Amino acid sequence: MAEVKLDCMYETCPIPLLKAHKKLQTMKVGDILIMETNHTCSITNVIEWAKKQGYDADYIEIREGEWEIYIEKVK
Amino acid sequence: MASNRIEELKKRRQREIKKKKSQVPVGVTFLIFALIIYAIFLATDFKSSMFWIIGLLFGIVLQRARFCFAASFRDPILVGNTSILKAVIIGLIIMTIGFGIIQFISIGDSQDFDIENIPGYISKVGMHTVIGAILFGTGMVIAGGCVSGTLIRIGEGFILQIVVLVGLIIGSLISAKYIQFWDKCIISKTHVVYIPRYIGFSKAIIGQSILLLLIYFLADLYHKRNNIMK
């Protein structure tokens, strides 16, 4: 039940999504991935992708123009 | 709906976050600037004032909708997601009908017209289209946005895209310098393909709309089939 941080600052689409995909493969079921990004398109991109994969996902804005995306590996 | 653990994490992080500065004053300042520019255009150049308003509205729609042309062509191949591609296809259907109506009003349903007189941007198609498309497509995926995408991200404050904008301007200048060379090599040997000339307006518009609808449903099918990234 670990929380894994992933730094995606200053990365444009589709790098954050590819990074998340790689990271999620190494994680165990039940772990939560915390992605930090400042690219707004990644939010929709990553969350839509994660939900399509069947993962739980959500995000919050942590600073001006910086967001954290949470993805729970449920399966 | 996110799971309980994500909700918990969100609440925990929310407590750690400092209160954000209000961005309303900046927004109001920019709105006033936009209105001043509009007023100047109204007084001097009415046509530009219309372009200014249409441009601002375009910007708002593109930014709010996250409408990214780069993603629309990249995501189907990369992650099997065609939701933005479908939006582009819907846009093309609306454009087909809208421009069809405008062009129909100006020339009528005859097959005998001069292409120069048709409103719209109808240009020659050939190998230069293919070369340009490959160059632009490769560039926009590496740069993380096409022209409109780059501009909205600069507006959002994503500094990296300013580098892209500089590249974009350099590229445009180079292409403007060598356009005559390409014109002599390829473009002058190609022709305008304008379907209404061969089958008439109504058939062309209906035919193109049906074709686009077909592509839409194929994209939808592709979206459902490609559920897992390989």
TrEMBL record, chain A:
SUPFAM superfamilies for this protein: SirA-like
CDD domains in the cross-refs: SirA_YedF_YeeD
UniProt domain UPF0033: residue ranges: 5-73
UniProt feature coiled coil, ranges: none
MF term (GO), any: transferase activity
Entries under InterPro entries matching the protein: TusA-like (IPR001455), TusA-like_sf (IPR036868)
Pfam families from the UniProt entry: TusA
Keywords: Transferase
Family indicated by similarity: Belongs to the sulfur carrier protein TusA family.
Protein name in the entry: Sulfurtransferase TusA family protein
Organism from which the protein derives: Crassaminicella thermophila
